[in-house]
Please model this.
Amino acid sequence: MKRQRVIPLAGSVWHYHRTRGPRMDLPSVITIDGPAGAGKSTLGALLAERLGYLYFDTGLMYRALTLAAMRAGIDLHERQAVEALAARTRLEVTEPRVNDGRQYTVLADDTDVTWAIRDPAVERNVSLVSSYPGVRRELTRQQRAIGQRGRVVMVGRDIGSVVMPDAELKIFLQASLDERARRRANERVDAPPVAEVREAIARRDALDEHVMRPAPDAVVLHTDGLSPAEELAWILDYLGRRPGSA
Ligand code: DC
Model:
């Protein structure tokens, strides 16, 4: 992976727009991979909004399939049953269809599962479901079809390496375990002890290790101590400095 020194440039978002204007040579597909709590969703959504691109969080699909399997009463250890379900379940991510603070609507066979996929029981089981090769093959196929339409920021664990290996800009977000735990604890309304969240994230890191595939040509951004706005500024500045950009 290319290692980049992180230089938060004060006000560079505005600098970028003032001095360069809208770019004509933006990458059509931008991938953001990284571990849980590294800030992928926040940065991905901000970047997509800024560029007028679709924001597509691929983790939603693994979560929705896990929930569908649980609701169908499938034994999640039955690999073939889960893989068969992946092949016949219609997963869709659309613009918000209900005005309740959501950023998108997730449908599994036309059932709205937007909030249900955040359930802790889904979180406990999603690593197992996403470890099955048939599940990954099927969801990768669907994700690729969406990515190939272009003008998209795709977020996940293996997007730059497996799903969209030809993407023109690949970002790998990194942050220390302590920082990720602090961020997740702050996000939650029930204010859990940071140590407890830290332990849960460390557990997920271990479970997700097999699906984490950093692309060798990804630019690595260490986000400890950076705000989402500073991360966005850094990415926009990096876009402007890429070889080949005007
Ligand atoms: O990003 P997230 O926490 O919502 O992802 C949920 C799970 O889905 C995560 O435990 C790993 C899996 N996942 C995956 O295997 N491949 C992806 N591209 C995205 C997520």
Confidence is low (pLDDT under 50) at residues 3-23. The chain has two domains: 1-53+151-246, 59-149. The first strand starts at residue 2 and ends at 3.
